[in-house]
Queue: 2 jobs
Job 1
Amino acid sequence: MEDGNTTSGKVQQVTLVTGGAGFIGSAVVRRLVRSGHRVRVLIRPTSDPRNLRRLPIDIVTGDLTDQPSLERALKGCRFLFHVAADYRLWVPEPERMYENNVRGTEKIMEEALKAGVRKIIYTSSVATLKLNGNGVPADEKGAASLGDMIGHYKRSKFLAEAAVLDLIETRGLPAVVVSPSMPVGPGDIKPTPTGRFIANAVAGRMPAYVNTGLNVVHVDDVARGHLLALEHGTIGERYILGGHNMTLKEILIEVASIAGRMPPRVRLPHRLILAAAFFSEAWARCACRGEPRVSLDEARMARKRMFFSSGKAERELGYTYRPASEALRDAVHWFRQNGCGKGIEKLRD
């Protein structure tokens, strides 16, 4: 695969990353830089740039809904990693999420076609896949429908992925779809919903758990999977970039062990979590107090074990992932050193 490096006096071509200041995006940027790519990053004026400090990259300030900024960002680009997304499990104004995740994706793909980009890696999510009701790990074959999607985040990502797949079929868009599971690790500045519950566990604010399950993967393994998709991925195919399947209880026990905390011992029934989520959302809306502690969508998703298999990526891309304990350890240490996010104080031993 040609990577656009400067050889024999030729001009080095550019790889664009959208959402490069974010959790997954910045990990992809670091991996690209180490691999010798000339990297350009599209970030919003309001983005936190800390994850990009001291990296030899070009930055274009813009927005997925601003066509002139997309044209500037894509000029001269050979490859595009479209990682940017509004990842929140509760939003007071859902229309903004659809504008960013769906219409923003459609716009940048259209501009990438105009710019003649050679290959695109689109970051979707396992949220768009259909789960197996028996707890067996789901794979890329799981045919989901919009009706299977719980909440605006999942629905917006489902619609965005469908738009990309349609452009591949009807317009020859040279895109590969990658679907990360639950990435954890350093650099979760916002933090993401996943990072927030890990930070709260480190701080001793997760005294109980519900019977659910998640697929845990190190964010740097997800980033490496993006580059493997660029090198070996087949246009039009989807690849799950995941790790180890764990129950929430197992995750919290591991985090408690790393952080030197007592693990939670109380298992809460789902009906209690649903009731708590209802009142938490009502309080957030009425009192304008930011995000609820737990949303109804989170409570509904917790009814299922969100287990996935990365077998296809392992076979076709050469994808591998480290033990979940290492991913959680790096996340705990990073939160301990940094703390982050609204309502999360700096964490100390």
Job 2
Amino acid sequence: MIRKLLLIASAVAMPVGFIAATAGTASAGKVIDPTLAPATASCTTSGGTLTFKVPIGIVTPGGYVAPAKNKGNQIKIAGVTLTCTSSVVAGSFTGTASGKIKTTHVGQDPATFYSCVSLVGVAPAPGATLSGSLKIKWSPPVGQKFASSKSVTGISSVLGGVDGGGHGTFTIPGNPGTGFISGSFPGADAGASSTSTTATALTEAQLATQCSATGGVTTIALGSGTSTLQ
């Protein structure tokens, strides 16, 4: 009788042990992140600022005075909010973007290099360099989790312009088809076809007035825009 009871106990314990071992093996596997390639996301953007390490402006008598030397510039991007949707995510989600851009143009006179006018058109211009990155930190919908919590967008060119409402615009990348994304939502081509356009909060005319002031412009407030990660 005792032997029979032991055999029954062993038969019951075996599947329990097998289940525990199987569960341990499954939990040790890699987390599959649906936001990785070829996932894409469509977003609207709002807020944020561009801050120039060296103030930019438009040289005028009694107004803005350019630096004596051209040592390049650094632009800090901060506080941009993204509200997004994606076919691989249930519900909308948000992100916060920040980053830095470095630009140089060896030999160009300071009045031209630090001019607000240089914000229009494709940068970098011939003979200049521009490089940087934009990091997006994601906040998934409630109850969900992204294995990759951020996207990093490489910045090698920027296109400046004016929209229909007279506001300045900035498009990344400035040269279409040259984008790059690592992390979440890189699309099928590592973000090469990604694009983002953001308008300034002030109009072009209002910015021109600030650019002509003695201190020039150190910060540009951003308004709304769109961003497609693909």
